[in-house]
Amino acid sequence: xxxxxxxxxxxxxxxxxxxxxxxxxxxxxxxxxxxxxxxxxxxxxxxxxxxxxxxxxxxxxxxxxxxxxxxxxxxxxxxxxxxxxxxxxxxxxxxxxxxxxxxxxxxxxxxxxxxxxxxxxxxxxxxxxxxxxxxxxxxxxxxxxxxxxxxxxxxxxxxxxxxxxxxxxxxxxxxxxxxxxxxxxxxxxxxxxxxxxxxxxxxxxxxxxxxxxxxxxxxxxxxxxxxxxxxxxxxxxxxxxxxxxxxxxxxxxxxxxxxxxxxxxxxxxxxxxxxxxxxxxxxxxxxxxxxxxxxxxxx
Length: 299
Description:
Layout: E1 11-15, H1 28-40, E2 45-47, H2 60-73, E3 79-80, H3 89-102, E4 107-109, H4 119-130, E5 136-140, H5 142-145, H6 151-159, E6 165-168, H7 175-182, E7 187-190, H8 196-201, E8 206-209, H9 216-227, H10 231-245, H11 253-263, H12 280-295
Parallel strand pairs: 1-2, 1-8, 2-3, 4-5, 5-6, 6-7, 7-8
Helix pairs in contact: 1-2, 2-3, 3-4, 6-7, 9-10, 10-12, 11-12
C-alpha cells in the first residue's frame, strides 16, 4: 500500500515514536531501522515529529535530524510527512521549509495551539505555512488543541488552496459525511485508530496511525478490507485489535504503543518527561491485550 506520487499523503502513514536510549538520547540508527521495517511491511509512509514522536521534548537540532533520518531511510515511493506544529505560524513555516529541504513530500499541521484561536487566526496560520510550498495535511485534534477544525472551516481552508487533506481525530465520524458535502475533493484521513473502520466506511482514503508501529501487517489488512467495503471480513479483525487500538486515543498513547512494540520484539523504549512510566496496572492491561493479539496470530 505505497503512497501515490500524485497524492503522497494517501494510504497508511504511521505516526512513529522516537526510540530513546536509557539516558533518553535519540537513537537515530534504531529510528532509521524502524522506518525501513515499516516500509518493508507495506506501509505507505511515516509521520515523524508528531505527538507520538514526542516532538515537544526535542531540541531544534534533534527535530531537524529526525526528519532527515526518516527521509534518508525511506525507500523510493515511501512517503515522509513530518509534523510541523509549533506555537507560532512563522515557526511552523520554518519547519515546513526544513521538511521540504530534507526531501519530504508533505507536512502535517495542527492549528495554532498556544491559545484557543478564532477562525481568522486559524486561516492566517495555514496561509503562512502554505507559503513553504509543500502540500499541507491539516490535523484536527480539538481534544488537545482546543481548536476545532469543523467541516465548514476545513472546506474554507481547502477552497483557498491551503490544505489537501485532513487527519480527523475528533472521534465524531458524522463529520466525514458533512465534509464530503462541503468539500468533496478534500481527502479524509482517519486520525484515531479506534474509529478507523467507521471512517474508512465513510470514505477515508488514508490512515495516520499509531498501532501499525507494533502490528503493521494486521493493521494494513484491516484498512484494506475496510476501504474495499468488505466489512464482514474487517469487523472480526477490528474487534480483536480494538483493545489495543483504543489506546491511541488515551493520554498514555505514547507509552502504550512503545510498550506493545517492546513486547513484540521491536524497539519502543522509554519516554522523555513529562511523560512518566506507565502505572503497573495500566502496563498490565496493555501487555495482556498485546499478548492476546500475538497469540491470535496478528503481526
